[in-house]
Amino acid sequence: MRIISLLPSATEICFALGLSDELVGVTHECDYPSAALVKPKITKSKAKEQLSSADIDSLVRSQLDETGSIYELDLDALEYLKPDLILTQRLCTVCAVTYDYVAEQALKISTKPSVVNLEPRTLDEVFDSIMEVGRLTGKENAGEYVSTLRKRVDEISNEVRQLTKRTVLFLEWADPPFASGHWIPELIEMGGGINTKSFKHSPSRQISWQDVNEAKAEVIVLAECGFGVERQLQDAEILVRNLNYKPKEIWIADGSQYFSRPGPRLVESREILAGILHPEIRDKILHEYIARGEVQLIKIAS
Fold this sequence. Notes:
The chain is of the alpha/beta class. The chain contains twelve helices and 15 strands. Strands 7, 8, 10, 12, 13, 14 and 15 form a seven-stranded mixed beta sheet that branches. The protein has a four-stranded parallel beta sheet with strand order 2-1-5-6, with helices on both faces. Strands 3-4 form a two-stranded antiparallel ribbon. α9 (229-241) links the parallel β13 and β14 (249-253). The longest helix has 19 residues, at 142-160.
């Protein structure tokens, strides 16, 4: 089988299930594991990452209005790679090439590949996606792999069950602010937190700075879609300038590698949240993420 993944999360699933040889094409955003970096890239983004977050937001909105997508698909490469299976999604037009467009183009490819929509909104549905890829590709190890992930989830649940809960505001974008949606509010609850402003199992959406301040969250987590920690430092300054109260803590986490991708590492995302929310277990959980520069506590001026 020849597989093309149009999602970083699907690429991670393929590698986790031992499908690296069958994976013949990926997107320009598929950067994990490192072996994905050498796979042929069949997409590129029209957005300019060097722009400010406010300008990126404006550009994305205008491109979606004009063309319905912020990505370009290399149709010649798609034909050259002759896939049997294309993994994509309908969940978010900002996250990947739209499903309908991919399905339309697949009809023109000589191999007539199957186009499969992976659209999880919850952690359980992420596990279902892993099982679906296993079923489609004949990988019987998918069940065992999912069982291992579920065991890690249960271990964290048991560890935080008796610990003090804290209120949380999780932002997926800072300028303008977007409160978390889909699986993230669920991960916060499972990690022992209390959501303030969020949209559980629904798309994240823009909120006002008044909403941010009225939430009065004890902990604010900034994990912007597509950005690592270093890029988000400038947006953390915007966040702090717009606060009219002092939260107990503000954290930046790597949204690109963890929270934004509905793949196997959502289990690690949940562990990160447990460490952020509970100082009692923080050192044990977060020290490696902090050492790698994937999580950072922001100092708040007195």
